[in-house]
Amino acid sequence: MKVKGVNLGNWLVLEKWMSPSLFEGTTAEDEYYLPTQLSREVYEARIKIHRSEYITERDFTRIKSMGMDAVRIPVPYFIFGDREPFIGCIEELDKAFCWAEKYGLQILIDLHTAPDSQNGFDNGGISGVCKWSQQPDEVEFELTVLERLAERYGKREGLWGIEVLNEPVLEDMWESMKVTERYPAADPEKAKGTKPNTMEFVRDFYLRAYDRIRKHMPKEKYVVIHDAFKLKAWKDFMQEEKYKNVVLDTHQYLMMAELQGCPQTVEGYVNYIEENFEKDIQEMSQYFPVICGEWCLFNSLAVGRDTKGGQTVLNGQEGVSEESLTPEQKREIYQALAKAQLKAWDAGSGYFYWSYKLLTDTVNTPGWVGWDSWDLGRCVDFGWFPTER
Hints:
alpha/beta; TIM Barrel; eight-stranded parallel beta sheet; 37% helix; cell membrane
């Protein structure tokens, strides 16, 4: 099993930095507060237009032509339309399955958010709040969402697998990312009691989720668990005969390597990728198939300034508005980093790039130089990313 894929980020789960115009006229930093600052009609219109235009049939043919064989689709906990005021998006996922099956792609459904969030990141649905695991009713609700997804798509030809939960955060990552500073809560009252999850809770949730999903999904489809940013902590987990086709997902970004002290030079990045990403994946592949479910070419060297772990102008960081490198220099950096990272993921069972597209205008909006590398389509077009046609 080797998978080559790309994430359809910001389609069904919004991220403001990837599509700033959706948030125009509001101070909302995340999907939770967007409907509180727009009228129902405007909110519904924006969301429906965004979903219908952001990803279409043509994107699936483009992804196939890039040499990919799968897509990872982040979905929200309100996908079934049963959590006001949010609008469900099950019809969009239905369409994606039809497109995927028509054009020979597989889908990894990734449950990306939880009520009151599993991480406090903007991509967890509500910034600066992380309380989901403390609410048994909401934990149960999340399990029912997984079960309903498995029931609906478990036997579909286009299903590769279901990822139980994206990026639940534990204490060490909470501290090193300074989550509450990086993602300040809009409502301090709402954020009261916010804290990281415990490993004990995450493990228990994964075991329960596996049972609920497997009731409806055949053994040959994959159940994917995220490493909670601790790749090597899972050697003793789900090793019993009962657990079939469990895949461990790790997210490895160069911007996080920079926070760990990785030198911001091509040689520094390549060494770090080999000594850390590749070796750790090799080690853990003795226990699980390991995929890198999120990664990209973004790095501070190509931006021209230390981004302090990929903080954007939206995080209050001053961005770079003038290119300091020639297109040739950028191409050399990105090609070297693409080669090293693809080799590292090849030590495991493959990857999903983050992300397929970005609607941020990195040319006309000051401060976004270097952020185009999050967009796989642009990386392919500029010759930064190798494609096998």
